[in-house]
Each structure stands twice: as C-alpha cells, then as structure tokens.
Amino acid sequence: MAKHKPRSIPELEATAAAGEAYSWDITKLPGPVKGKYFDCCLMVDIYSRYIVGAHVHATESGLLAVEMMKEIFGVHGIPQVVHADRGTSITSKTVAALLSDLEVTRSHSRPRVSNDNPYSESLFKTLKYIPQFPERFSSLGDARQFMSEFVQWYNHAHQCSGIGLNTPADVHFGLPHSVAAKRSQTLAAARARHPERFSTSRDPKISAMPEAAWITKPMDRVVQAA
Predict the structure, then answer these.
(1) Quick one: which of 26, 23, 163 has its CA closest to 87?
(2) CA–CA distance, 82 with 164 (Å, rounded to integer)
(3) Around Cβ 156, how many Cβ atoms within 10 Å?
(4) Which of 23, 88, 130, 165 has its CA 20 to 30 A from that of 42?
(5) In the prediction, which pLDDT does 222 show?
(6) pLDDT over 90 at 40, yes or no
(7) How many other C-beta atoms lie within 10 A of the C-beta of residue 42?
(8) pLDDT at residue 17, as a whole number
(9) Are 49 and 171 in contact (CB under 8 A)?
(10) Domain residue ranges of the chain, discontinuous segments joined by +
(11) Over the range 171-200, which residues count as b (16 or more CB within 10 Å of their CB) and which as e?
C-alpha cells in the first residue's frame, strides 16, 4: 500500500498590521432548486477579521479566483501571506502563478483538516447561522445582493469577541484605542449617575485586543503533533 508523507501543520502569525495575512475559501450557497448551488469566495484579513472581498459566481475556477484577488489587492494592497485549504481552484496553477509573481507566500491547510483554516470556517458559520440566511437563493443576483449586505453588516456592525468586541472595520482601520476610550468614558458616566450599580471601586474591564492572530500557535503545534 502506498504511503504518503504527512502534511506539515501550518503555522501563521499576523500582528496588528492590517493586510499582513489573508485567509480565503469557497462555500456553497443554495440555489433556486435542489442540487443547484452558487459559489461564494470570501477573503478575510486574519488579524482584523475584516472581509476584504466577496465574490459570488455560478461556478468556481482558478481564473475567477485570480480576478477576485487582483481586485482585492488593488484596493487593500498586497499581503505577505495568503492562507487557504487545498481546493481545486485554490491550488490551481493560475492562482499559484499570480501569488508567485506578486511574491506572496502561499500557506495551505492539511487535507481534510478544517481547523487549519479557522478564520474562513468561522466566517462561513456566522454567515449561515444568521436568521436572515435564506433556505434558497432565487437567482445569482439575489445571492450577490445578500452577500453585499452581509459583508457591510459583518465589517461595520458585527462585534467580534476575538478582537475585543470591536467591529472588523474598527480594527482594520486602527480605531480600537479610540473605541476603548469612548467605552471607558461611558462607564465612568454611568458610575457617576448610578454608583450603586457597581460592585467594585473599579470600572468593568474593557475587552482588550489580542497581540496577534494565529493559525496554529507553536504550543498548539506541539500538542497536535503529539
């Protein structure tokens, strides 16, 4: 029986610098009839959780993925690393050639290990569990309109626990410190009006931003390997 060498565990760190590392993946959106699906490509900055691009097509291909990346990089700049799983379009020669030409490092999940691409998987779960997500999309245009509205809400209104209950846009554009200052002012004003509602002499702790975002921390890598 043929034996294949085990794939290495991906290890990727992104600090507070927006645009350092992106994650992307493709998910299926249910079409108007059973067995019909639209392909949704989403790319997200792994530190800020900001969706930098979302394209919906009737099918997937490497050429469409390259088109999406060129558009994203033209608006948000070229990242240092792009992480993804090992789907056919994702590992296509056209995508590999573009990233190579731009000197972008490619990072890939191990086969059939969804935890290796946690930011895209978490984003898809949020997408499909919101109450507004329909049972089916009536058309490609309907799916595109829904995704446009979802991206706007997710980037500018959704407060993520992993980034200190900030919105992805706040983090992506360097606003967490001003947001934290406003929250502290609000808490101080509330204490002044109703001191009896506070059980300690200190204001409740403001959720802090993480120093970095990881795909497999070194300690986690040791545990997985074991």
Answers:
(1) 26
(2) 24
(3) 12
(4) 165
(5) 41
(6) yes
(7) 25
(8) 66
(9) yes
(10) 12-170
(11) bbeeebeebbeebeeebeeebeeeeeeeee
Distance CA 189, CA 196 (A): 13
Structure tokens at 30: 């249910």
String of DSSP letters for the chain: ----PPPPPP-EEE-SSTTSEEEEEEEEEE-SSTT-EEEEEEEEETTT--EEEEEEESS--HHHHHHHHHHHHHHH---SEEEE---TTTT-HHHHHHHHHTTPEEEEPPTT-GGGSHHHHHHHHHHHHSTT--S--SSHHHHHHHHHHHHHHHHHT--BGGGTTB-HHHHHTT-HHHHHHHHHHHHHHHHHH-GGG-SSSSPPPPPPPPS-EEES-HHHHHHHH-
Per-residue pLDDT, 208 = 74
User: What residues does 82 pair with on adjacent strands?
Assistant: 22, 106
We find that the CATH architecture of domain 12-170 is: 2-Layer Sandwich (3.30)
Condensed to tens digits (0 to 9), the pLDDT of residues 166-188 reads 999 999 998 878 887 887 788 77
Average pLDDT over residues 14-37: 89
Instruction: List pLDDT tens digits, range 192-223.
Output: 888 888 777 666 677 777 788 878 776 554 44
